[in-house]
Each structure stands twice: as structure tokens, then as C-alpha cells.
Amino acid sequence: MAPVLPRALGETFRFTEALAAGLSEPALRELVELGRLEQVARGLFRRANAQLADLDQIEIASKAPMATLCLTSALVHHELSDDIPAVIDIALPRGAWHPKVSAPVRWHSFAVATFELERGQIELDSSTSIGVYGPRRSIVDAFRLDYQIGPEAAVEALRRWLRGGGNSPASLMEMARNFPRTEAKIRGVLQVLL
What we know:
This protein has helices at residues 15-20, 25-33, 55-63, 71-77, 135-144, 146-149, 151-163, 169-176, 180-193; strands at residues 12-14, 37-41, 44-47, 68-69, 88-93, 105-110, 119-125, 128-133. The protein is an alpha/beta fold. A five-stranded mixed β-sheet has the order 6-5-4-8-7. A three-stranded antiparallel β-sheet has the order 1-3-2. The longest helix has 14 residues, at 180-193. The termini are far apart. The model has no long low-confidence stretch (mean pLDDT 93).
């Protein structure tokens, strides 16, 4: 008789959570072989009947709870860029360990003092979420780190955000004040665009 998945386990769960719920390692292997579970990454499993989700982001969020979509990945999430990034840009607080993942990721270390500014969460499935920077913070970061993603990406994101309606240049400058070296650069581009 095939093992039964305990209801206490979410759509995505770790090996240690499965053990704590009463599943043995052989039972997990059997559930994978039967197609009732999918092994997303080493030590990370997902129910086969789970809703569709980005498995790379699920792996990252499971291994780094403070992981936050930033730069191009955040701009794409907010529809401020049409780029299809080859890697997922993820920010962690400076000094945090960057786990090894199979997902294509580019890690960024952001200052602890500003890490939480405009940081929200998006649900990836019923048991996993990942951080994401809001649109204003994403634009500021694009200008701040334009040498990594290209200055044209930052300007295009700003242009789209301004066209979005209801977005105030003053609110963007308020966010930019938290990053003084970037403030003048954004002000200059706003003067050209407005």
C-alpha cells in the first residue's frame, strides 16, 4: 500500500518537515516514484497536484527566507520592463549567507539599514512566499545599480512608471532620499522626462 501524504504538509515542504510529519525517507522516494510528489531541489518536495508556480523562486524562497526579488526581476514583476532575464536577481541583507541553489540566480547584498524599505511579499503557492521590492524602490535600485543592468533599463522603468497614472515624482524622490548618491541622477532624468 502506498504511503499517504499528511495533510499538515503544505504544497511545498522540506525533507525535515516530511520526517516531522511522520514520513520516512523510503516513503518519500516511493511517493516521488508514484508521481504524487515532485522533488524540486535537494531536500525540497512539492505535491504533484499543486497549483502552477515558479519552481526556481520556490527553491530560492525555501532556502533563503529573506530572499527578495530586485533589479530586473522586480521591474519585470511590476511590468516596468519587458526583459526576460536569464537569471533571477535576488537581494539579501548584507552579511547574510547566499545558499547554493540550482536555480539561475544572481545574488545581491543590500545594506541592512535599507533592506526593508518598500519590501513586500508575493505568494508563490499556499505554503511559500518570496519578498519583492515595490515599484518605487525597484526604480531607485535600477538607477543605483545601473552599471549592472544598464542605464537604459532604469530610464525605461521610470518612463513606464510615470505613464502608469497616479504615480508622483515627489513620492519617487522621497524614496530616493534614502540613497543619497542616486537622488541627483533620478532628479536629472525626471527633469528631462517631465
